[in-house]
Amino acid sequence: MNRRALLASGIILAGGGLAGCLGRGASGMEGDVPEPVDLSGGKYDDHGGMVIGRHGGANGQVFYAENAPDRGENPAWFHTLVFGLFPYHFGRLDRGWEPRVVYVTDFSQVEYELTERDGRLQMPSPTAAETFGEAADLTYVAESEVMGGMGPALHPFSDEAEAEAFAAEHGGIALSFEEIDPVIIDRLQRGSGHGHEHDE
Predict the structure, then answer these.
(1) pLDDT along the chain (200 residues), means of 10
(2) Pfam families per the record (predicted)?
(3) Does residue 31 lie in a domain region?
């Protein structure tokens, strides 16, 4: 799947009303924006129940304005973007939950090395608070040969040139935050031939 295939035929229309809401609340909320939190220490993903930091790939967290995950406190946190953060968050948007801010791993802020697992390259899974950036400001590499903990992944970078270089070296396409919608997430989950592996 290439960028044209992803974005053609009105695919981005589904995300037009959603993606713009994924960052800070659309209502222009007043007050300080919460800072990202450290996701180490055996925290369990709020969408799938897996331990964050153990499986590889970008992590994420979402602070909601007037709602919280089932455990009762913000933020909602995730060990994967494709199989965790985005599916959960799109579902919550459908319920009327308003995000205050969304954070994801910013690989431009991380000294990372790729590892090999089951014959595939894989990104690390940093969890420190300072490794997160505001999701709306990052560029995402999709469909590269480099996997996350559950297979196909989105790899976020605050430096667009780094994202483009990563895609040039490892395949894939660079997407802005606004271009990510439920249809694209579904197609990434299907893996375009990669399949996905659920690491326990």
Answers:
(1) 43 41 42 93 94 95 96 96 96 97 98 93 97 98 94 97 98 96 94 42
(2) NosL (PF05573)
(3) no
Instruction: Using DSSP, state whether 40 is helix, strand or coil.
Output: coil
Domain membership of residue 71 (yes or no) is yes
In order of 52, 158, 163, 188, 190, the CA distances from 90 in angstroms are: 20, 22, 24, 15, 17
Tell me which amino acid residue 159 is: D
Q: What is the pLDDT of residue 12?
A: 37
Rounded to the nearest angstrom, the gap between the alpha carbon of residue 166 and the centroid of all alpha carbons in its chain is 16
Query: Does residue 138 fall inside a structural domain?
Result: yes
Domain range for 94: 3-24+36-192
**Unique residue bearing structure tokens 């992944």:** 153
- Burial class for 172, CB neighbours closer than 10 Å (0-12, 13-18, 19+): buried
Alpha carbon dihedral 41, 35, 136, 94, in 10-degree steps, equals 80
